[in-house]
Structure formats: structure tokens, C-alpha cells
């Protein structure tokens, strides 16, 4: 008993000797960001402007912690994301911007219907871009701490965009998570892929339609888009089809998912030999291309043969539901034409 009491007392003394530091206030955290901004060499006037505007947004933290966990299937997801209204709007804008899309496609090699589909699904054709201050949202999420390194890095990327003069601070609005403009780019994606298509010196994904289209196209092209192919097709599987030929759900990261893609992809002729058919039962196309088999809802749900462009779209958003909705909408834009 004496030994046990001594051990407890020693442990308590150790804890008291190394007290847990209290989390700094947001103001104190912002002061640390400001000091780092000074050390990075940003213009003093920009630093003063940004940090004078910086605010902690509890709603942003609440949104991050309480993202909905709905039981969803592709059959319930697609009608909501690719509604009749969105299809109609996508077709109307595809026709309205036909000439502009042709210009972008000629330069970047990305079909206009996919640009319109991504534009529509990300920001409802620029109507809903978010109204949160991007620097404040990113600073708030960095302070919250769940993904501090990521959001702290994005905060300084946002400063880079402001420093380059692409947008004014009071116009730098986005989603609660910091995704910006009509294409909903995070600041790091903006710096990597945003385009100044009309040569006015600004990469304006908020208000310049040609910059928006070109930025979406450049993102896809930079990651391997092939405009000689489409995204994939829904297919019919034979009875008792082995799931070993499919990419399993729940891969922990993109690298692991790409390894599964490489393991499972086959030519259309090989899928044909395994009994895979078009949705209406006809043979698969006789084209010398490879595809992976995607089952967004696992066995018993819809099945898709996904081409390399599907893989590119999965870099934009690693969600089978989102990527399938992009392809689905892109197909419907030109259906019956």
C-alpha cells in the first residue's frame, strides 16, 4: 500500500511539474499568424488590412464539426444533385456560352459540357459561391485545430492571392471551408490552376466568366484529362460477378485508391469477356481503352466502367457520388442533340 501511495504521489508531482498549457485565444493565435506574415515578407499595408478584418467565426467551426452524416445511395443522391432544374439550366448555359466554351476547349482540350457540369455542381452556375470572408474562415479553422497545418497553409496561400492583386480583400468570399469563387477552388488550387484567360492581369474566378471556364479546364488538363474520351458508362454485370474485379470502397487516401485502380483496370475487351455489358445488354464498344469498375454503393448498386477522365475527376473531389454526378450531368447536357 505504501508503494502504491508513493507511486500516485510521484505521478501527481510530475503532472504538476509539467502543467498543460491553456489554448491561446483566437486573438493570440491571430497575432502568431501576423508575426509569421511579417517574417514571410508580405507588404505591411496588406498585413494591416487583412489582420484588422480577421474575425473568429463560430459558425464555421460548427459547420466543420457537424457535417451531416446521411445514409445516402446514388439513387437518392443523383436526383437531388442532378435535378430537372439543374439539367435545364446546364443545357441553357451550354448553349449560351457555346462560342466561349469552344475557345477554352481549343486551348485546353477539355469538352465544354464537363466545364458546365462542374460549374453547375460547384456553385450552381456562379449563383452560390459562399459569403464568408476567406481569410477569416481559414484562420478560424486553423485555430480550431482539427486540420491546423492544412488550413494554416491555405491562409497564407490566400495572402499570396491578395498580394498578387487578383481580388480585393472585401471581395474574397467563399464557402465556410475557404473554397472560393464560381469554381470553388481552395487557395492552393487557385495558385496551381487558376487562369487569366483574357489577359487583363487578374485571375478572377469570382466574376470573369472566361477565367472561370479556363481555370476549370486547366485544372482538369493539368491532371491528365483526355478529350478523346468521355468519363465512363453505367454497365450491367452478370450474375455472381466477383467483387475482386472492383475497386473496394473505403481506401484511406488517393495513393491507395490509385493503386487499386491500377490493380483492377482492364481493357473493354477483357471486361466484355468477363460478362460486363452496356446497361441495355448490348456489347461494350470495340475501343482499345482501359477502364476500372466502380460500384459507388458496393455490391447490388449501380456499376460503372470508369475511364481515365473519371480518375482525373476523382482528384477534384474524391467522392464516387460527386464524380458520377459530374459525368451524369455532362451526358445529359448533350442528350438528344
TrEMBL record:
Residues 80-107 form a coiled coil. Residues 1-22 form the signal peptide. The keyword Ion transport does not apply. Keywords: Coiled coil, Signal. Gene3D superfamilies: 1.10.530.10, Bacterial muramidase (1.10.8.350). Residues 26-331 form the Transglycosylase SLT domain. SUPFAM superfamilies: Lysozyme-like. This is Lytic murein transglycosylase. It comes from Alkalimonas mucilaginosa.
Amino acid at each position: 500500500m505504501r508503494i502504491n501511495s508513493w507511486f500516485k504521489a510521484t505521478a501527481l508531482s510530475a503532472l504538476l511539474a509539467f502543467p498543460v498549457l491553456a489554448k491561446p485565444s483566437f486573438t493570440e493565435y491571430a497575432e502568431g499568424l501576423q508575426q509569421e506574415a511579417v517574417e514571410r515578407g508580405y507588404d505591411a499595408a496588406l498585413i494591416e488590412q487583412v489582420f484588422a478584418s480577421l474575425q473568429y467565426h463560430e459558425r464555421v467551426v460548427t459547420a466543420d464539426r457537424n457535417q451531416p452524416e446521411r445514409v445516402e445511395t446514388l439513387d437518392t443522391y443523383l436526383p437531388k444533385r442532378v435535378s430537372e432544374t439543374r439539367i435545364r439550366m446546364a443545357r441553357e448555359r451550354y448553349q449560351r456560352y457555346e462560342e466561349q466554351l469552344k475557345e477554352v476547349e481549343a486551348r485546353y482540350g477539355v469538352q465544354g459540357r464537363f466545364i458546365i457540369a462542374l460549374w453547375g455542381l460547384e456553385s450552381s452556375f456562379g449563383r452560390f459561391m459562399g459569403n464568408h470572408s476567406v481569410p477569416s474562415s481559414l484562420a478560424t479553422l486553423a485555430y480550431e485545430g482539427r486540420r491546423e497545418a492544412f488550413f494554416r497553409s491555405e491562409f497564407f496561400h490566400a495572402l499570396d492571392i491578395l498580394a498578387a492583386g487578383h481580388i480585393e480583400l472585401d471581395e474574397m468570399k467563399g464557402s465556410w471551408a475557404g473554397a472560393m469563387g464560381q469554381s470553388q477552388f481552395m487557395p492552393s488550387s487557385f495558385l496551381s490552376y487558376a487562369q487569366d484567360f483574357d489577359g487583363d492581369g487578374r485571375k478572377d474566378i469570382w466574376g470573369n466568366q472566361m477565367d472561370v471556364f479556363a481555370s476549370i479546364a486547366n485544372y482538369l488538363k493539368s491532371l491528365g484529362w483526355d478529350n478523346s474520351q468521355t468519363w465512363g458508362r453505367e454497365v450491367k454485370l452478370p450474375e455472381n460477378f466477383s467483387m475482386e474485379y472492383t475497386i473496394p470502397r473505403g481506401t484511406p487516401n488517393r495513393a491507395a485508391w490509385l493503386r487499386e485502380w491500377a490493380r483492377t483496370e482492364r481493357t473493354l475487351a477483357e471486361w466484355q469477356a468477363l460478362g460486363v455489358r452496356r446497361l441495355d445488354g448490348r456489347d461494350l464498344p470495340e475501343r482499345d481503352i482501359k477502364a476500372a469498375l466502380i460500384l459507388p454503393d458496393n455490391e447490388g448498386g449501380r456499376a460503372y466502367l470508369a475511364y481515365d477522365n473519371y480518375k482525373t475527376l476523382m482528384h477534384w473531389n474524391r467522392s464516387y457520388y460527386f464524380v458520377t454526378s459530374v459525368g451524369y450531368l455532362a451526358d445529359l447536357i448533350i442528350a438528344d442533340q
